[in-house]
Amino acid sequence: MSALSSALHGNPRSASPARPSVFRRVLNAMVEARMREAQRQVNTYLLELDDQTLAAHGYSRSELKKTGTTFRTF
Questions:
Q1: Given this model, what pLDDT does residue 70 score?
Q2: Quick check: pTM over 0.70?
Q3: Which of 2, 30, 56, 62 is 20 to 30 A removed from 20 (C-alpha atoms)?
Q4: 52-69 burial string, b = 16+ CB within 10 Å, else e?
Q5: Distance CA 30, CA 36 (A)
Q6: CA distances (Å), origin 62, targets 36, 37, 43
Q7: 22-69 pLDDT per residue, tens
Q8: Which of 43, 20, 24 is nearest to 32 (CA)?
Q9: Which helix (H) or strand (E) holds 34?
Q10: Rounded to the nearest 5 degrees, what angle is found at the Cα of 54, between the Cα atoms of 70 and 39?
Q11: Each residue of 1-12: pLDDT tens digit?
Q12: For residue 3, with 0-12 CB atoms within 10 Å meaning exposed, 13-18 middle and 19 or more buried, which class applies?
């Protein structure tokens, strides 16, 4: 009878969107963090180029600095 009741009155659990599992949320957070780190590393190397080369490839030195860079010791 509960299945029939759920079908007729709507299941309150199915009304809200499904929340990802803890594992999925942790994995997504790790992927996002790695993507941000990769972008900072790319920006570090791009900032070593001259302004003319950056402009030719559609980059701006100020925009690259805004999004962050990594510290390089060598």
A1: 76
A2: no
A3: 2
A4: eebeeeebeeeebeeeeb
A5: 10
A6: 18, 18, 11
A7: 999 999 999 999 999 999 999 999 999 999 999 999 999 999 888 887
A8: 24
A9: helix 22-46
A10: 30
A11: 555 555 556 555
A12: exposed
User: Which tokens hold the place of 64?
Assistant: 């690259």
Contact predicate 64/38, CB 8 Å: no
pLDDT (0 to 100) of residue 53: 95
Tokens 């992927």 label which residue? 31
Q: What CA–CA distances, in Å, run from 58 to 19, 34, 46, 54?
A: 38, 24, 11, 6
3-state secondary structure 41-63: HHHHHHCCCCHHHHHHCCCCHHH
